[in-house]
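[Q] Does anyone have a clean structure-token version of this?
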Amino acid sequence: MASPSKRLETAKKFVANFSTLSTETLEAILAENFVYQFAPASMNPPGPFDKKGLIQHISGIHAILSGIPVTAKEYVESESSNQVTVWATSRAIFREELKVEGLSEAGWALEGELVFLLWMDETGEKLVKIVEFLDSQKTVRLLELVQRAKENKAKNN
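[A] Here you go.
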């Protein structure tokens, strides 16, 4: 069996990084001309982000969440467009110290579904563009929980 392409390896590194939200890993796999965009636009998501902007965004998320493990359901690779599409599920893991009293553990549990479109540079080792299609319904709930966690963090500081 042939070994995975550099393109697919890079896509898998990107997906695996959500477990730790490591900005160092992102620094290594994002091209200097990188662009990140959330979709659908009807949700009025943040961004688009350049490399520095995405790293700052992820750093801010990491202050609230210890990770967002993403599990790929399917990778679809396109050699002609130097692109990988990832259909996946995700699970937000909030930092224990930021969970608000009065909300059960199940209330903090949040799983969603998403699709990433990942474009690579000519080497297949750097990401130049990502479009992330969010789970519209679950993202609304995620933003509510993030706001509660931020309020609790402010109280604790």
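[Q] Thanks! Anything notable?
[A] The mean pLDDT is 92.
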